[in-house]
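Hello Y.,

Per our agreement to keep a running log of every chain we model this quarter, I'm adding this entry. I've kept the format consistent with earlier entries: sequence first, then predicted structure.
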Amino acid sequence: MARRAHDYDEDDVRVRPGRRGSRPRTRRRPAHEDACTGFVTAVDRGRYRCLVAGGTAGERPVTAMRARELGRKGVVVGDRVALVGDVSGAPDTLARIVRVEPRTSALRRTADDTDPFERIIVANAGRLVIVTALADPEPRPRMIDRQLVAAYDAGMEPLLCLTKADLADPAGLVAAYAPLGVPAVVTRRGGDLGELRDHLAGHTSVLVGHSGVGKSTLVNALVPDAERAVSHVNAVTGRGRHTSSSALALELPGGDGWIIDTPGVRSFGLAHVEPENVINAFEDLAAGAAERCPPHCDHFQEDCGLDGWVAEGHASRARLDSLRRLLASRDGEPDTTDTRDT
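Predicted structure for the entry above:
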């Protein structure tokens, strides 16, 4: 006789185990309270080189990978991270990065001015060193302006480092950026770097610049055992070849700060930058913008209140002209002083 449905019991049913467990999923994640803190010094193909405090033995290098619980959160050079797993630093060991600590700053750029996806270059740096050659290759003011905008947006202090002063006079470029209050250091091949060292002491500084300006040469002089590859400028195109393929953090001799060398770039997109983040870096002009400018003023329109603010002597015309030049650079306006592509 056929059995009715309600006559079946658990012995008559075969449960086929699924691919996933039957335990309900939870958003709770391990706290990893025993995790140790590391400082990311290099990133290479999904592996992260970190420095971990080693007690009396000092800091030790540890290689790590990203843990699944990080999700899509990126890890960049300069990040402070929490590490678990094998943090001994022994050969062929691999730790896991389970947490990225809150960042004090993040230097960002986009591929171009229309790209909505921003990329964080380095984190937790306080100073942006804009390295520019005075010749071979020729300086690119528009690139300098864009990097200044990125520094102001990130809340970093900019420093202009002009290299190869033995080939050209730095006076004109120094004067062009004097109204912005940006300090400038001038170097020459084989010259003394004492002034630059003084600016870097006690800070974590990022060196940026397009290819061939001498960043790697500076790094090798500042950190003698860095052994960064050095390139030459192409005589036909006037451009340098990329010799640094990834960012690298290096400790200055005597533990007196860090420098982060970055790959040479030929473009610096600013699609992510809001004008307010730029003007707020100019306290004398920011006050006038808040008091006199109409809502959503782009500071180029006829009723911009900054012109009257300057006319009354609250700020200099040179400062306002420099600010507008930076904002024009952010908006992709052409720069007639630089005919090469960016």
